[in-house]
Design goal:
The chain is α+β, with helices and mostly antiparallel strands. Helices cover 19% and strands 36% of the residues. The protein has a 4-stranded mixed β-sheet with strand order 4-1-6-5, with helices on both faces. Strands 3-2-7 form a 3-stranded antiparallel β-sheet. α2 packs antiparallel against α3.
Amino acid sequence: MKIPISVLVVIYTTSNEVLLIERADHPGYWQSVTGSLNQMDEPLSLAAAREVLEETGIDVYQLEDRAFQSMNHHIQYEIYPEWRHRYPEGVTQNTEHWFKLQLPSKVPVTLSPREHISYQWLDIQSAAKLCFSPSNQEAILRLNSD
């Protein structure tokens, strides 16, 4: 069963091109990297780095220290009914913690075919519009606000 604590990692370039990946279990649903903690005591930054590697093949530990940062923001949202079966019975809310990863330029992405079927790089506004998740849209639009 999934833990209802997750991370969202917006990957983007210095020229503000945002990476979006398309869900395998719901074609047409585009998003940034997301994932739940593997265990309750897993540090959020480690979970975020793990998810980036699993979903894109990008190793944050091979990049400059400042490339990967917490956005110091989290939200709570209602889990979509179609995905509640993945969580313990009665769990309807998830807490999502936001991170960002800035790359010098677009890089090739290695998708996990079990999770995602396609990827694309888009400008900030286009990426935000394409995301199915309102919180993902908001995270993208906040990229350059700090």
